[in-house]
């Protein structure tokens, strides 16, 4: 089979069977009979000489190769869906959605509080908002899958003309309220032997290294008890007395009943939020959105 013959319909068959792991239920969802669906999947496997599913009288499950192929097929279907939404919107340029990506922290701190003002300013505009990491969102911008992104940067290696600084804030220390020995100002040396909640280094390698260098300067090696990827998960763990964490100051309004927030004596890097877009003319509401986010 020529790869071009693996059309969207067959990809949908493949993904639906993978989701259901049952040919009868998948056929019902697809509104087709079960035998033709089984034949189509078998034909794909034979044409490419790949076994996608392991079948028995009791169950259907994906093979390791099948898992990888289904994952890619799902991405193709998702991209196609996004493309169709955008094409339909382009029939009326003024109603084209502004496809905005944002890291979770920026949605909480910057975007959500300003959405009402944006709606009042541009009542006919629609924003398609999606969450991701800085790296994921930059890749989507470069592949034209989104128009712009609100991201965090530490070391910048992007063209300055594509970046708009929105907010800069310090880090604070978040500790469980039960840790009564911590006042409003703390030295990181006080964290010696205290359980610490951090994040995987690969998320922000340079920032990670700088923060750990500050710990090292006061003779402390953080006693890591948990790694998490989101600030909401971090705060939830602190609130439940799992450990302490370094978080952006804007989050200090959350969990105030269970968390004590303190300023840090040592000089840490700041938390810098940027709006990234390669061309502000991609959407008529882009400039207004940037102004609101900077306000």
Automatic annotation (TrEMBL):
Residues 6-63 form the HTH lysR-type domain. Keywords: DNA-binding, Transcription, Transcription regulation. SUPFAM superfamilies: Periplasmic binding protein-like II, Winged helix' DNA-binding domain. InterPro entries: LysR_HTH_N, LysR_subst-bd, WH-like_DNA-bd_sf, WH_DNA-bd_sf. One of its GO terms (molecular function) is DNA-binding transcription factor activity. The keyword Transcription regulation applies. GO terms for cellular component: protein-DNA complex. PANTHER family: HTH-TYPE TRANSCRIPTIONAL REGULATOR CYNR, TRANSCRIPTIONAL DUAL REGULATOR HCAR-RELATED. Belongs to the LysR transcriptional regulatory family. This is LysR family transcriptional regulator. It comes from Pseudoalteromonas xiamenensis.
């Amino acid at each position: 089979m020529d790869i071009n013959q693996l059309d969207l319909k067959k990809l949908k068959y493949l993904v639906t069977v993978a989701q259901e792991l049952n040919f009868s239920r998948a056929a019902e969802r697809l509104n087709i009979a079960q035998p033709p669906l089984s034949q189509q999947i078998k034909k794909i496997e034979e044409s490419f000489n790949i076994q996608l599913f392991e079948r028995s009288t009791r169950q259907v499950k994906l093979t390791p190769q099948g898992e990888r192929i289904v994952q890619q097929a799902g991405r193709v279907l998702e991209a196609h869906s996004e493309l169709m939404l955008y094409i339909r919107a382009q029939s009326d340029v003024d109603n084209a959605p502004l496809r905005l990506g944002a890291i979770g922290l920026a949605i909480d701190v910057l975007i959500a509080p300003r959405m009402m003002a944006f709606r009042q300013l541009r009542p006919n505009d629609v924003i398609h908002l999606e969450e991701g990491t800085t790296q994921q969102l930059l890749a989507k911008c470069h592949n034209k899958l989104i128009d712009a992104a609100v991201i965090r940067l530490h070391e910048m290696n992007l063209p300055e003309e594509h970046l708009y600084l929105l907010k800069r804030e310090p880090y604070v220390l978040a500790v469980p309220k039960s840790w009564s020995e911590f006042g409003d100002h703390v030295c990181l040396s006080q964290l010696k032997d205290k359980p610490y909640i951090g994040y995987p280094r690969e998320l922000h390698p340079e920032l990670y290294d700088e923060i750990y260098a500050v710990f090292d300067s006061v003779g402390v090696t953080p006693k890591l008890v948990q790694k998490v990827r989101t600030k909401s998960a971090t705060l939830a763990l602190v609130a439940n007395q799992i450990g302490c964490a370094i978080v952006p100051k804007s989050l200090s309004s959350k969990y105030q009943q269970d968390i004590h927030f303190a300023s840090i004596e040592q000089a840490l890097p700041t938390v810098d939020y940027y709006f990234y877009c390669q061309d502000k003319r991609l959407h008529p509401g882009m400039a207004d959105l940037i102004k609101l986010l900077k306000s």
